Amino acid sequence: MRTLSAASEAAQKRSTLTPLYRLALTAPASGGTSVTYLKDRILSIDHSEQAYSHRATVLLDNHDEAITANLIGFQGVISYAVEPPGTYSACAPLYVIDQLFHYSEGVLVVTLTMKGIPDLIADDKANADFEQETADLKTVKDILTEVIKGVLPTWAASTVWASAETEKVKV
Q1: Interacting residues of 89 by C-beta distance below 8 A, sequence separation 6+
Q2: DSSP track, 13-62
Q3: Among 31, 58, 87, 138, which lies 20 to 30 A Cα-Cα from 38?
Q4: CA-wise closest residue to 38 among 97, 100, 81
């Protein structure tokens, strides 16, 4: 659950609202490049955040052809706010899994398809049956923490998420 400041909560209760949103993308390598897109660059966001699924499709205006980089693999955080006060509330991190450059109504557009950790785990087929050895005393939390941190048992897939994400996963 997100906690809002008193000013943000009061702003949401007004009869007219001016929504703000941003997308902060960070390269997967430590010290990698970062880029933030605001309302002026974001054409639309279709964002769903449920208990076992985090997904988004973001359309970015690229009329000036400023977006040229391959953003697949970047971690993105979508944040929302109401103006004023403009205090953003960040959502769970997502990862860019697909990027498409195309024209829409004569404007060059970049579509980013993004997924969160629950959907990435589902894509990794991490829902197969697992039988623990009788002598192994690890809990489910221990096993999931190993997988997320990248300390993978021999039976696990090879996908590794940033260890900072481990702290955000509630098991």
Answers
A1: 2, 4, 8, 79, 80, 81
A2: TSSS-EEEEEEEEE-SSTT--EEEE-TTTEEEEEEEEETTEEEEEEEEE-
A3: 31
A4: 81
- Say how far apart CA 159 and CA 170 lie, in whole Å: 19
Each as own residue / partner, the long-range contacts of residues 129-133 (CB below 8 Å, 24 or more positions apart, any chain) are 130/155
- H-helix or E-strand containing 147? helix 140-149
Tell me the two tokens of residue 168. Answer: 């955000």
Quickly tell me which residue has 């997924």 as its tokens.
115
Give the span between the Cα atoms of 111 and 57, in whole angstroms.
7
Structure tokens belonging to residue 169: 């996963």
